[in-house]
Amino acid sequence: MQPEFALFPEKASTLAARVDALYYFLIAVSGFFATLIFLLVIYFAVKYRRRSATEQPQPIEGDLRLELLWTILPFGLAMIMFGWGANLYFSASRAPSDALNLYVVGKQWMWKIQHPEGRREINELHVPVGQPVKLTMTSEDVIHSFFIPAFRMKMDVVPGRYTTTWFEATKAGEYHLFCAEYCGTKHSQMIGRIVVMEPVQYEQWLKNGNGTASMLGEAPEVAGARLFQEQRCVTCHGADVGGVKLGPSLIGLFGKTVQLQSGESVTADEGYIRESILNPMAKLVAGYQPIMPTYQGQIDEEGLLQLIAYIRSPGKTAEPAGETRAEQ
Ligand code: CUA
């Protein structure tokens, strides 16, 4: 963290320099035209001042070259800004496929984070340097916003849906984490720190709980597998009994295209799975009866993320083998 006053926060992610470059460009263009217009106003005011009380100005009929110049130039500049910004936006929204998947739940007034290996933390986020990290985020109450200035990364955290973002830290160190959306009395205290570590130290940190053993939880997918049994999801989504399958299989579901009763199709992403657990009738899978009850109010946000982690895990099996997983 920077001790002294600085105009810009540190640059500590792969995107930081690119975001700053666009920002400098916008400032430079705005500064250039603001100065130009300011100087021209003074220059023309002097040059075309009325010199005698009877002086009449000549009417101007127009000038095609001028019209073209001040149409094409701003259009070109605007398109450069648009293209540049869109390119950066796509880079910032699409996480690389080898990214670590971390889950973030915001609530008044704290950040709860879970690592794929099971470690949990509150108001702190430890990440390895040089590794893309994808955050899947939701809120238990109101809208928050996850903001890491040094990474030039900010994403709203919204109740009832998932937002995702990603970053790759380039420099070990500690950085600020802020909530950037006013969320109530203690909004200003909804802060934390990001600790970027060398990969070896990160592995170490994952293993030893820094003295807080309670934060060394089970991996989200293991907890999800247990929930899958406890909530009896396995009854309908497990192996078919007597040739009848009450619910669609979830094996290899994540990321696939699902055909719906309505004739439409959807991609099975985090948002779709979440909705199907809480509001099963919203997107009924083709060929199945509308018999699934809602789990609204029975599974909290962290539980939902754990179920999703389980369903997306590579070794995912909804068959009775899940019983042994759950006992680990
Ligand atoms: Cu949470 Cu502001």
> Multimeric state of these chains?
single chain
Count of alpha and pi helical runs: 8
Describe the main β-sheet briefly: 5 strands, mixed
Helix/strand class: alpha+beta
Mean pLDDT: 84
Give, in order, the helices and strands.
Answer: HHEEEEEEEEEEHHHEEHHH
pLDDT < 50 runs, ≥5 residues: 318-328
Overall shape: it is elongated
Q: Which CATH C-level class of the domain at 100-215 is it?
A: Mainly Beta
Task: Provide the spatial order of strands within the biggest beta sheet.
Answer: 3-2-1-5-8
Number of strands: 12
Fraction of helical residues: 25-40%
User: Rg from C-alpha positions?
Assistant: 27 Å
Hetero groups bound?
dinuclear copper ion
As for the CATH topology of the domain at 100-215, it is: Immunoglobulin-like
Distance between the termini: 41 Å
CATH architecture of the domain at 100-215: Sandwich
CATH homologous superfamily classification of the domain at 100-215: Cupredoxins -  blue copper proteins
Share of residues in strands: 15-25%
Task: Summarize, please.
The chain is α+β, with helices and mostly antiparallel strands and 328 residues long. It is 34% helix and 20% strand.
Structure characterization notes:
The protein is an alpha+beta fold and about 325 residues long. Among the domains are: about 100-215, Immunoglobulin-like (Sandwich); about 220-325, Cytochrome c-like domain (Cytochrome Bc1 Complex, Chain D, domain 2), CATH 1.10.760. The chain has helices spanning about 15-45, 65-95, 200-205, 220-230, 235, 270-280, 300-310, 320-325, and strands spanning about 100-105, 110-115, 120, 125-130, 130-140, 145-150, 155, 165-170, 175-180, 190-195, 255-260, 265. Strand 6 and strand 7 (about 155) form a beta hairpin. The longest helix is centred in the N-terminal third of the chain and has 32 residues, at about 15-45. The two termini are about 40 Å apart. Residues about 320-328 have low confidence and may be disordered. Bound molecules: dinuclear copper ion. Dinuclear copper ion (CUA) binds near residues 144 and 179.
